[in-house]
Design the sequence.
């Protein structure tokens, strides 16, 4: 199939982007790796594509002592290969699993967040790290915690008149370790089940805080505090039954995905714990 007819504009400023989106019938185009297939299958029929590629202020990639800031037009491949990404180890762990290299060369980090595919890796990383997503609209800018940004499959808290301008990932702290794992039919496919973990330990190696985010298992990334069950296999099995609520399909039943989740959770929590304790030594 081919996309339904649409108008195309390429504004040079954020104000002009918002003016084009004011009618509510436009759609933001950044990398296009998620949007173009949707248009080709006519699952979406926007009247206007608003290309944000010429807005210079949206291309920032910078790291401070507190956060890694990624602008809306930063390509995934640019972030993957950047020195700045080292401040957030989960970026380096997850990025090779995001589609294929060719797609990452065009796709944007914020575009993946805005698309909100429940089986995508970057929304899960953002949720696990408690990243902040910056959104601009007719009423100004607002900052949304990642946990509140994803409200359903392919659905976010941003309105049709708003645009995601940046995401801020907190940098790793001393005594912090991470894990990332997923199972897919082929490399580059969306995950049948995936897990992102973050563990923090004290000077004595005791667990202070542990978070786990599952993806590909529900309508949104699902995050839980697992501080008390980091190495409790039975509790992780109970967690899998609670978290994995996606229906079965030709690629795997709900029960199969729960088994995948349980194994991945145990493995990636153990990996994160080892990394955190090693960082303390």
Sequence:
């Amino acid at each position: 199939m081919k996309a339904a007819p649409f108008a195309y504009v390429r504004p040079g400023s954020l104000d002009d982007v918002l003016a084009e989106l004011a009618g509510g019938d436009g759609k933001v185009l950044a990398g296009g790796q998620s949007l173009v297939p949707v248009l080709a299958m006519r699952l979406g029929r926007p009247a206007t594509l608003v290309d944000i590629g010429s807005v210079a202020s949206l291309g920032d990639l910078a790291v401070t002592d507190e956060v890694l800031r990624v602008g809306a037009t930063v390509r995934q491949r640019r972030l993957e290969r950047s020195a700045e990404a080292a401040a957030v180890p989960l970026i380096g762990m997850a990025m090779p699993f995001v589609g294929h290299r060719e797609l990452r060369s065009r796709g944007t980090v914020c575009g993946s967040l805005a698309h909100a595919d429940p089986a995508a890796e970057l929304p899960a990383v953002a949720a696990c790290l408690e990243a902040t997503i910056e959104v601009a609209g007719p009423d100004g800018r607002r900052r949304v915690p990642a946990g509140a940004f994803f409200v359903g499959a392919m659905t976010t808290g941003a309105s049709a008149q708003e645009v995601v301008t940046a995401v801020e990932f907190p940098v790793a702290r001393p005594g912090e370790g991470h894990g990332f794992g997923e199972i897919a039919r082929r490399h580059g496919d969306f995950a049948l089940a995936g897990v992102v973990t973050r563990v923090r330990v004290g000077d004595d190696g005791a667990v202070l805080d542990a978070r786990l985010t599952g993806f590909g298992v529900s309508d949104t990334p699902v995050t839980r505090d697992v501080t008390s069950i980091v190495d409790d296999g039975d509790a992780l099995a109970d967690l899998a039954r609670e978290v994995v609520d996606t229906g079965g399909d030709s690629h795997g039943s709900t029960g199969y995905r729960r088994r995948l989740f349980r194994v991945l959770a145990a493995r990636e929590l153990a990996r994160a714990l080892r990394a955190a304790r090693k960082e303390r030594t």
Notes: DSSP finds ten helices and 14 strands in the chain. The mean pLDDT is 94.
